[in-house]
Task: structure prediction
Amino acid sequence: MTISADHTAPDQAQRLPAEDAASEAVRKFGITVEDYMLPARHQIQMVDQDGQLKAEGEQGTEPGHEYPLPADEELLAAYEQLVVGRRVNDQNSALVRQGRMAVYPSSHGQEACQVAAALCLSDGDWLFPTYRDAVAVMARGVDPVETMTIFRGDWHSGYDPARHKVGIQCTPLTTQLLHGVGVAHAAKLRGEDTVVLAMCGDGATSEGDFHEALNFAAVFHLPVVFFVQNNKYAISVPLAHQSVAPSLAHKAVGYGMAGERVDGNDVVALLAVLDRAVKLAREGSGPLLVEAHTYRMQAHTNADDATRYRQDSEVAEWLAKDPISRMKTYLTGRGLLDDDGAARIAAHAEDVATQLREGLGEDVPVDPQELFRHVFSVPTPQLKEQSAMLADELAREASSEESPK
Amino acid sequence: MSPTITTSSEANGNVSAATARAAASAASVAEASGPQAVTMAKALNTALADAMHADPSVLVFGEDVGLLGGVFRITDGLTRTFGEQRCFDTPLAESGIVGMAVGMAMNGMRPVVEMQFDAFAYPAFQQIVSHVAKMHNRTRGLVKLPMVIRVPYAGGIGGVEHHCDSSESYYAHTAGLKVFTPATVADSYRMLREAIDSDDPVMFMEPKKLYWSKDLVDLEDLGAQHAANAAAGTSSEGRAAVARPGTDATLIAYGPSVPTALAAAAAAAEEGRSLEVIDVRSIVPFDDETVCASVRKTGRAVVIAEAHGFASVSSEIVARVQERCFHYLAAPIRRVTGFDVPYPAPKLEHYYLPGVDRILDAVDDLQWEN
Result:
C-alpha cells in the first residue's frame, strides 16, 4: 500500500493492487504521496459562472489533479437532470406551502452536486444520501413520489434501498456514511467491484461518525467516495464555526486518502472529479473525499428563517453562480443545445412536476395494522396482542359509526 | 369475578432463515463424544465457530477480537481458523463498528460484533437506536438486518468504573431490538446460534461474571440439536425456562441473577420452602406464558435483577405479571435489584449486588400465613 501507512503490515500490502493512484502520481509526476493526497491549490472548475470553458491550464491540470472534459452525452444528460432537479425543488417547496408535505429540505442551488452524485455511479453502485438529497435519489432512478413519502408523512421511507441501491434518507447526521462503508466492505469481501458514494453536508463533518467512517474506509481500503456538499451553513451555523481546517477536503489527508475540492455549482467539474474518484475507487485505490463548494439558496427548511443569519448580498452573490444558467450558456455556445432541445427538457421537467403534484395531492389511505407488521420479521406475542387491541378498537369505532344512537 | 388473563400459546417460530443453513451445519457435526465440563466462554466461542462454519456470510469483528481472541477470549482462534476476512479487528470506535455492521447486513452479510464492555457500547447508542432497531421498520420490511451485537455486561468481577453496567433496559425499551441473555453454558451456545440465525437484530447480553462458570455439556450434541431444530423450523427462541421447579413462590431472574436465584431456592429448600426459579432467557420477546403459568401456580413472586430497579426490565416484569396474574396473587410482587446508584467500585459491589440473603428476605415478606 503506497498511500501513507508506513505502519501497514507487509502481508496486507500483498493483497492490494501493485499500482494505486498515489504511487502512479509519484511515478508519473515525481510528487510525494502527501502532495497527491492534498487537494489541488484551488477549487477544480471547468466552466466558469459565465458559462465559459476555462483555459486548460486553469481547469485542474496540476500534477496528480488532471481532469478530462466529460463526454458530450454525459453533459447533456446532466443538464436535463439539472432542469428536472430545479423543477422538483420548486414543486416540492410549493407542496409544503399547500400543506401537502410536512417539510421539504430544498437543494435549490445545489442541483449540480445532486445530479453529478447520481450520474457518476454505475448500476451496481450504491448511493447513500442525506435528507436534502432527494434530487440525487430521483436522478438515480427512484420514483419521484416514492422519494417524497418520507416528507409526505405516511411512512419514514418510501423506496426499496436494495432494489435501487440507494440508502434511505435519514435525519441523524453522518450516520449513513458508516452504512455506506459497511456496504462497500461486504461487496469487497465478495470480490465485487461495487463503489459507494456517501453524501453529507459541511455540518456533518463535525460529527464523530464522519471521523469513524473515513477512518474505517481508509483502514480497510474500501471503495467509498465521500462527497461533502459544503453549502456554507448547518441550519444557521456558518462553516467557520464547524471547522478551521484549510478546507474540508484537507481532512482527507489525515486519514490517508486523497481529497479534492471542486466548484459545486459547476456540473462539468463535478462530473470530471467524481467520475475519476469513482474510477479510482473501483480500481482499488481505496476511499477518496470530494468537497463541493456550493450554496443553499433557500432556508434550511420551511421552519427556518435564513434572514436571521445571512445577508441578502451573500445570497445575491451566489445567485450569479447558478449551476443551471451557466450550463445552459455553455452547452448552447458549444452547439450541443438549441431551443428545441431546451423546450423538450423543460417539458420533461414539467411532467415530473405533474407526477409529484398528482402523486402527493391524493390522500393515500394508511393501514393502521401496518404499525405492527414491520417491527420484527415475525411479530412478538406482545405485538400480536397490541395489534388485536387496535383491531378491536377500530371495529368498535366502525360499528358505532354505522349505527348512530 | 373470574380472572381475565390471556397469554399467547403460540410458539415463536422465527427460524425460517435458519432452515437453509441447517444442512451445512449438520454435515459438520461429528459423532457426539459425551458431556464434558465446559465454560460459558468456550460454549460461546464454539457457537461462533459453528455458525461461521455453517454460513460463510457470518462475520465477526470488533476491538481485539482477532489475534488476541477478545479480552474475554470469546473469539479465540476464529481468525486463525477462518482468516482475517471473517474475524477481524477494527479501529477503536464503537459507533463505527455498529454502523459498518448495519451496512454489511444491508448487503448480504450476517455480522456478529463485540462491544468490549457494556458501557463501551454507549458511543454506538445512536447507531443501535436510530438505525439497527429501525431499518426493518423504516423500509416496511424490505430490508432485513440480521446482525448480533454481543455485549459482555453486568458486574461481579471486580471491574473498575464503566466495566460493569447492566444496560439491558436501554435496549429492551427500544422497539425493533431483540434482547437475549443466557444464564447457563448450554443456553449460551443455543441462544447465540439462534441469535445469529435471526433475521432481526439481536442485542446479545453476556453475563461476564458467568464466563468462567462450568457445566457438563456436550457441545457437539448441542450443535446437532441446533441443526435439527433449524431444519425442522423449531426453536426455543423467545422462551423462558423453568430452571428449578417449585410450588410455594416463583423467583423470576435472568442472566447474571439466575445462579443467585437458584442458590436462594436451594437455601429456602433447606428451610422447607419450595421455590420455583424461572430463567427469562429472552427479554425481548418476553415469554409471558411461562412466567405467568408459574406465578398462577405458586401465587407469589419475586423478580430479581442486577440492574437498577427504577424504570427497568424488572419493573416491566412486575407490571406484566401483576396485569395477568392479579387474582392468583397472595401477596404483592417483590423486587430485589441493584440500588439506583452508579455501579459501585469493586470494594463496594457486594453491597450493591442482589444476593441470596436479600432474596430470602423478600421471599419472607410475601405474606405467608404462619
